[in-house]
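Extended Data, panel c. Modelled sequence:
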Amino acid sequence: MWFRRLVQTSNDPALAILRLALGVVFFAHGAQKALGWFGGGGFHGTMSAFTQHMGIPAPFAVLAILAEFLGGIGLIFGLLTRIAAFGVAVNMVVAVVLVHGANGLFMNWTGAQRGEGFEFHLLAIAMTIMVMARGAGAWSVDRLLDAAFAGSRTLQVHMEPSPSRG
């Protein structure tokens, strides 16, 4: 029963668009951290930055990298979407608290701030909350799993022998 509630979702294309946009952005950020793609530091460089420069314990640094990389993949495919969104949300909250909160709301468009603000993070958190509340939407593995689970429950109900009368 708990697994069905985890993957249960509607066939809403708006949710799918939200999920896909979030997934693409976080896959790219995660690929920077995990693989060094898109100009990122790669796994070792990111681990060094997180553990040595920011003082984040290694297990949490690994979880942060995986949350963005695997979370992005999960969001793109709509696979275990609520878990993927939760990991991304936690990353964004930690980023605001540890780094970006002190810089204010706005991104550093003019170069006048000492760092980036948290407006991006706020939008990402809002998107993850929506996905966690409503599910993956259309075009998702979760939707297929939900349908399969519903089908197997229906099949079991119809295959049970009817009580004899009489």
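The chain has one domain: 10-151. This feature is highlighted in the accompanying rendering.
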